[in-house]
Amino acid sequence: MRDFSARLATPEEIADWDSRVQANPNGGNVLQSAAYAEVKSHHGWNPVYVVFTCADYTSYNLVIEKKVALLGSLWYLIKGPDAAAAEDVPAMARALGRFAKESGRRVFALKVEPDIVDGEDVRKLFREAGLVKTFNLQPNDSTALLDTTPDTEQILKNISSRARNAVRRAIREEADVRRVEPTEENMRAMYKLMSHIEDRSSARMRSYEYYRRFWSNFTAAGQGRFYFAFEDGEPSVGAFVIAYGKKGTYKDGGSKPRRKQYGDSHLVQWTALTELKEDFGIEEYDFCGTPPSSELKNKEHPHHGLGLFKTSFSKTVTDFAGCWDLVLDPLRYRIWNTIGERVTRQIYWRRHHQPFY
Q1: Any idea of the CA torsion for 236, 240, 246, 247, to the nearest 10 degrees?
Q2: How far apart are CA 57 and CA 290, in angstroms?
Q3: Same structural domain for residues 101 and 227?
Q4: What region holds the BioF2-like acetyltransferase domain (predicted)?
Q5: What confidence category does residue 256 fall into, taking pLDDT thresholds of 50, 70 and 90?
Q6: Torsions phi, psi of 128, nearest 5?
Q7: How far is CA 172 from CA 33, 131, 263, 355, in A?
């Protein structure tokens, strides 16, 4: 088993953050990016830039810190740590715990969320290492991933016949699908399209200001793009996608109900992923959220329809290990786990009308 140390990144490393994250063993994650760290800094979280080192590799990871009255700090390695192997995750977490204690920080727990594929062997490994399973937070802890390394024609052949026929029909019928600029008008149109999805689900949307900052940060970094389908001159389907390293991500989407153009949403995705492949050389496209593989056929699941759409491009669902806690102070963690977290989330929602995480 590898032995890790943890330290804070230097100013020079932070200035070059994205290139360092993208050189991690798994190529980094968009939620570990500089653009995302800046977003969270405006919404109650303090970015902490952490470097893990062992004899074999170095991994750069974003930690977001939430200070909790009376209890101290919760550290959340959002979509991290980026580890070369599952057995490295507990070792990295313990190294960060040691660093927090030795540097005099009142951290009562670390929340880890690695992009390690789930399985009983992984769960057993994490439990035996002292990690505590908790509820998952990110929509793509279960997701559809499309391999974009083949040429475009082969990718089209690899997706399901339903998706392939929808793309071809939309092209044949000259559906109006195009990339659009990140203007205020287009961002407000995107948010409006997303609200239609909320009408049909139990989701709580974040504020427009949150999304505006998120979209603006990623487009300014040259990583984010908007794609719209138009019907009768108005946006009818929208997608915000990101290229980060070799990975593309369908981050946000929305559509009007009862549209006339068949295949428009499939053509939006096809246009986005093929252009990200052409312009950035992405090797994988994450459709960012489906029901877990065990729930994919459950018609009562709130994301059943989205799951059907996304798995029409990639036939299987990948389940990641999700969220696990490393307890650093048992008493404070027990208070947090029994009442503190629930109360804190309720108060935060009442004050800000935003999800806590």
Answers
A1: -80
A2: 32
A3: no
A4: 161-289
A5: very high
A6: -65, -20
A7: 38, 53, 10, 42
What is the rounded distance in angstroms from the CA atom of residue 117 to the CA atom of residue 186? 36
Is 46 inside a domain boundary? Answer: yes
Residue 357 forms part of a structural domain:
no
**C-alpha triplet 281, 283, 288: angle, nearest 5°:** 115
The verdict on 17 and 125 lying in the same domain is: yes
* Structural domain containing residue 46: 5-138+322-352
Give just the sign of the alpha carbon dihedral 176, 179, 184, 188. Answer: positive
- Residues 6 or more apart in contact with residue 344 via CB below 8 angstroms: 68, 356
Euclidean distance between CA atoms 266 and 56, whole angstroms: 42
**Cis before 291? omega within 30:** no
Distances (CA, A) of 222 to 3, 32, 219, 233, 276: 36, 16, 5, 27, 12
d(CA 353, CA 350): 6
DSSP 8-state secondary structure symbol assigned to residue 138: S
199-241 pLDDT per residue, tens: 444 457 899 999 999 999 999 999 999 999 999 999 999 999 9
- Residue 91, domain CATH: 3.40.630.30
DSSP β-ladder status, 247-255 and 284-286: parallel
The answer to whether residues 269 and 129 belong to one domain is no
CA 344 to chain centroid? 23
Are 254 and 338 part of one and the same domain? no
Read off the pLDDT band of 305 (50, 70, 90).
confident
- The residue with tokens 């059907």 is 308
Count CA atoms within 13 Å of residue 232 on its CB side: 3
Note the pLDDT tens digit of each residue in 126-135: 999 999 999 9
Return the pLDDT at 348: 87
* pLDDT attached to residue 203: 56
Q: Which of 22-26, 181-185, 342-346 has the lowest mean pLDDT?
A: 342-346
0.70 cut: is pTM over it?
A: yes
Query: What pLDDT is stored for residue 197 in this prediction?
Result: 65
> Mapping DSSP to helix (H, G, I), strand (E, B) and coil, where does residue 63 land?
strand
Residue owning tokens 């507990």: 90
Alpha helix locations (H) across 281-329? 304-310
Check whether residue 23 and residue 54 sit in a common domain: yes
